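To the wet lab folks,

You asked to see what we're planning to order before we commit. Fair enough. Below is the target structure as tokens, and below that is the sequence we designed to fit it. If anything looks off to you, flag it before the synthesis order goes out.
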């Protein structure tokens, strides 16, 4: 038998790149490069169109400064910066929810709660006898005003929560109790109210990203995020005491009046309790509420100023982030 050279040894394989797949042709790199460039160009055109539309709309209502802000100063919103506040940042529901339960238990005159969606069965504490949201609010409503304001729900059942689910949830929350529960429908067709705010007696407020619902995950998460057989929800909130509480309360009362036509008196200004100067900022689209016809885009103004003031780096962590707001104007 004659010897064959190693180069002639057959492996039964066709010579082709290691990352190729049999029966599938590879895309020419030149064509791939062209499609990528076209995609980028198309995306940039969409970005410019969206930014131009936002700028025109903001200019029309006198809020173009919200996109042009460039400093770390306070926003020129409806509510001014107020000194004399005490703020506590509460990371995760394991800190926020028990603090809410404790503050609610000491309510003496009224409770105002606004949220995206609620779970009446939510446990605010995880003790041997947990504090359940509906039970606590029902007990309070026997002696003080308890007002709860929820978003109306998605216009199409394809999205959650649907309007039917919201109605059923509010009925489960308020049925056979004195809780006043209403739906805020003062939004655009494709918009939602994602505000989370709690005001107790006009002396303490909670604002932030933690909903009082288990929809999407259990908000009673911990910084260690231990495995527990279910989905958690990592987020944060701020506990406020002092003059800025009045602004959170005023915003709730504005929304409540728009929905119910019940005129609540303007909240009293709390006495200073700390040394923090704070400002309540918000997003109110123009034309949503009669009392704020030109809207309030002070959150956007605060973001714009903070981003343009960055000197070394920007760290942004958020469950949902729309990049087109900043576009090519990012620094």
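Sequence we intend to order:
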């Amino acid at each position: 038998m004659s010897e064959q050279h190693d180069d002639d040894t057959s492996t039964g394989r066709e010579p082709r790149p290691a990352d190729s797949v049999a029966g599938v042709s590879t895309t020419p790199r030149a064509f791939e490069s062209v499609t990528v460039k076209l995609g980028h160009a198309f995306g940039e055109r969409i970005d410019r169109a969206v930014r131009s539309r936002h700028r025109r709309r903001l200019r029309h209502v006198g809020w173009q400064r919200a996109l042009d802000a460039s400093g770390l100063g306070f926003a020129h919103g409806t509510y001014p910066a107020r000194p004399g506040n005490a703020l506590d940042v509460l990371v995760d529901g394991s800190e926020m929810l028990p603090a809410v339960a404790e503050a609610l238990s000491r309510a003496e005159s009224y409770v105002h709660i606004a949220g995206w969606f609620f779970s009446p069965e939510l446990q605010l504490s995880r003790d041997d006898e947990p504090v359940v949201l509906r039970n606590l609010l029902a007990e309070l409503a026997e002696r003080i005003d308890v007002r709860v304001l929820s978003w109306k729900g998605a216009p199409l059942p394809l999205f959650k929560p649907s309007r039917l689910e919201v109605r059923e949830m509010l009925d489960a929350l308020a049925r056979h109790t004195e809780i006043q529960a209403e739906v805020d429908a003062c939004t655009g067709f494709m918009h939602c109210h994602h505000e989370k705010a709690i005001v107790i007696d006009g002396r303490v407020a909670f604002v932030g990203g933690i909903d009082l619902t288990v929809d999407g995950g259990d908000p009673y998460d911990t910084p260690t995020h231990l495995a527990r057989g279910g989905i958690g929800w990592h987020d944060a909130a701020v506990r406020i005491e002092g003059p800025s509480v009045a602004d959170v309360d005023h915003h709730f009362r504005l929304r409540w009046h728009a929905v119910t036509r019940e005129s609540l008196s303007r909240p009293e200004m709390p006495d200073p309790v700390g040394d923090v100067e704070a400002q309540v900022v918000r997003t109110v689209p123009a034309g949503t509420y009669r009392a704020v016809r030109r809207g309030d885009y002070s959150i956007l103004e605060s973001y714009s100023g903070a981003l343009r003031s960055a000197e070394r780096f920007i760290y942004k962590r958020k469950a949902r982030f729309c990049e087109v707001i900043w576009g090519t104007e990012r620094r």
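Structural context that might help your review: Confidence is low (pLDDT under 50) at residues 1-14, 321-331. The domain at 82-279 is CATH 3.30.870.10 (Endonuclease; Chain A).

Thanks,
Computational group
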